[in-house]
Design goal:
By secondary structure, this protein is mainly α. It is elongated. Helices cover 84% and strands 0% of the residues. The protein folds into two domains: 66 residues; 142 residues, no CATH class. Helix 3 packs across helix 5 and helix 7 runs antiparallel to helix 8.
Length: 226
Amino acid sequence: MKALIKITIATLYLIAIAIIFYWCYGWLTADPKDHLTEVSIVYFILAIFISTLILIAAYSKANQAIQNSRTNYLLRIDERWSSKEIIQAREVIHEIYLKVKQTYSEDTDEKIIRKCISDNICALSKNQSQINGFIRLLNFLDFLETIGYLYSIKAVSINEVNELLGNSIIYFFDIYKGYIRYRRAKCRDNKFYEHFEILKKGIEDYNLEIAYRKSVKSRFFSCLWK
């Protein structure tokens, strides 16, 4: 996009120079009575040219501001991901994970493990002796919802979030799914953590699209070598 803008600006400058040279030649060779009309035409052309440059510059600045905003959001997400409170929440999740793994064999399906972790988190929300641990998990869940909200309003793109967090979003949604469903049913409101769910589905669709493109590319080159 930046290269296209530069090429467009350079082209407009060349057009402006050509117009000026053409006008100068016409000015020197035309009847003096026609000079006033030619001046008006040149002023009109220059006004259009300058207005176009202003619009291109404004668009370029707006595009740069959007990119800077995206970068700022991603940096803040990355910083928060490594913050003390989020690490504490992930420690609670890992403790649950280790506890669950002890009850299953090594070849147990990952979906079963995640479902069991999800059930444990939901049970934790109802355990008065584990309030501190659950509040940490809830804080982490709210943070994941915030990331989903930023994606929903297009403050960050799906490929950016995927590069930064990727499958972690899918994993954490799976283990929070039980509590999210419980909360929605209890409050009779399906909007609880809807942005987190939208983000999770977006990443899944994005990964499927990438896998499909790789598959098509692989088949294409396979056909070439045959």
